[in-house]
Amino acid sequence: MTHAQMLLEGGTVLVDNDRFAALSLLISDGRIKALIPDGEGPGDAERIDVSNRLIMPGLVNGHTHSHGALGRGGVPDDLPLEAFLSGGAWLNGTRHLDDLHLSAQLSAVELVRKGCTACFDLFVELPGPTMGGIHAVANAYHDVGIRAVVAPMIADRTLYQALPGLIEAFDPPLRDAVAALSLPAWQTIMETCTEAFGHWPVPKDRVRPGIGPTIPLHCSDAFLQACAALSQRDGIPLQTHLAETRLQQVMAAQRYGTSLTEHLDALGVLHPQFSGAHGVWLSKPEAELLARHDACICHNPLSNLRLGSGIAPVRMLADAGVNLGVGTDASNTSDGQNMFEAMRLAATLSRAQTSDPAAWISTRSALKMATEGSARILGLDRVGKIAAGWAADLLFLDAGYCHYTPLRNPLDQMVLAENGAALREVMIAGRYVLANDTILTLDEGALAARARDVAARLDGANAATRLMNEAAALVVQSFCRGNCDGYATRLG
Ligand SMILES: [Zn+2]
Fold first, then answer.
1. How far is the CA of 328 from the centre of ligand 1 (A)?
2. pLDDT in tens, 358-385
3. Which of 8, 54, 270, 403 could form a disulfide with 25 if both were Cys (CB 3.0 to 4.6 A apart)?
């Protein structure tokens, strides 16, 4: 017998991202229809016993890159962002459409296993996006059953063209090699994206398009404006890496004569569907500009630490009125896409920036950033909270796990202790995707076997490029240090 409604009984539910209560959840059409006292509810609903579970909304990852899943382990321990972009470019080379699909499936499975039910994916396809590639990634998320914004990560300048003075820092013959690199014209890229979005292969209620001009310096002004026009015309989210490193601001001053955010404002790129990833080196005037345009920043604390980018000024951004979400960044820069860790760091890192507890990011604020805040970045309707009418995207934590024994303050214990180890089931749009330590939507063993084979093939095919990239990264590294007088870590 199939039931139109499902009644989850006996659990302890995080209501409105604010308090836990013993309630049953009535689920219908992928949404939470009602929160009702245990023992009540319609007699014809399928009843599921969820006692011994803490039920919270699914975490929403505001910034990741699915291509990073097949690049896992490929980012050396000692590379900051720009050196990684040059030294690790080979990781994304010679990929077929099947490889893009595989990498997105791998990434999605990792996200679900760590409590994420929706993500913003800036995926890259080289040398430029194709309709087949964009659709392959969209299909991968559809297969796994996770929500996603699929945003081609695009640029019309290479790293070497983007940073003023970088090519001149090279000696021949490497200078000739990096100078010869090029990307497609932005008009071609925009045509491809527009066509791919217009023929979207899966229902848009769960997997939808977005646009991802990768880093402002890597995109010509006309290109950035075309991305913003598409975003506003079609109502799709736009995301770029904004002030991720100090070097990006130094180079912006040279190229534009202004900060990055002021430049984007002058181009008309800032709007409510705009989000900047990282925002480590944003100033207060920039934060105020973002807030004035109702724009968003996605905080990626672990990636910022891993790549030595710094600690984002989250309190300053919040006080200025910027919408904030939380993300992980890619599997190879973070190095596991664990939204519980990212949420926990959002709360705890703020305590390293000031001794004033009033300025810390509270557990409730971190939770809201990692759920409703990120959902706002993805442009999702009523996602990220357990309330009537909101999406049935739910995590079920084992209330008997050590993190919750004894249980005094479940919200604080969840934000400050949870790392996914107590996660037992994941539901997305009213459907179980993880249960009994098994992803229910695909064969994980077969996926892993394919991933190992494909990674071996790609490593062989990209071996020569890797040598060139690694030689270039040494020059990029010294260029960055020369232009940034060392890697000063931002603390406030
Ligand atoms: Zn990123």
1. 8
2. 999 999 999 999 999 999 999 999 999 9
3. 8
CA of 2 to the centre of ligand 1 (A): 42
pLDDT digit string, tens, across residues 19-36? 999 999 999 999 999 999
111: containing domain = 59-378
Ligand 1: centre distance to CA 277 (Å): 7
Q: Say whether both 171 and 207 belong to one domain.
A: yes
Say whether both 198 and 262 belong to one domain: yes
Angle value at C-alpha 396, between 393 and 398, nearest 5 degrees: 170
Residue 274 φ/ψ, nearest 5 degrees: -85, 135
Query: Domain check: are 190 and 243 in the same one?
Result: yes
* Distance from residue 331's CA to the centre of ligand 1 (Å): 10
Query: In degrees rounded to 5, what are phi and psi of residue 156?
Result: -115, 10
Sign of the torsion formed by the C-alpha atoms of 184, 187, 190 and 192: negative
Can you name the residues that pair with 49 across neighbouring β-strands? 9
Q: Report the C-alpha gap between 364 and 37 in whole angstroms.
A: 24
Query: What spacing in Å lies between the alpha carbon of 432 and ligand 1's midpoint?
Result: 29
d(CA 242, CA 184): 22
| Separation CA 291–CA 295 (nearest Å) | 6
The verdict on 161 and 98 lying in the same domain is yes
Residue 404, CB-side half-sphere exposure with 13 Å CA sphere = 20
Which residue ranges in the chain fall short of pLDDT 50? 487, 489-492
- Give the total number of structural domains in the chain: 2
Domain end (from 378, 397, 422):
378
| Backbone CA torsion sign across 73, 330, 472, 480 | negative
Cα separation, 187 vs 400, in Å, equals: 56
Give the global pTM. Answer: 0.97
Residues 322 and 236 in one domain: yes
Q: Which two tokens stand for residue 177?
A: 């090699």
| pLDDT on residue 485 | 65
Give yes or no: residues 301 and 243 share one domain: yes
412: CATH: 2.30.40.10
Give the DSSP H/E element, type plus range, for residue 196: helix 186-198
Neighbouring C-beta atoms of residue 291, cutoff 10 Å: 18
Q: Which of 357, 378, 399 is the last residue of a domain?
A: 378
The reply to whether 445 falls in a domain is: no
Measured in angstroms, how far is the CA atom of residue 47 from the centroid of ligand 1? 42
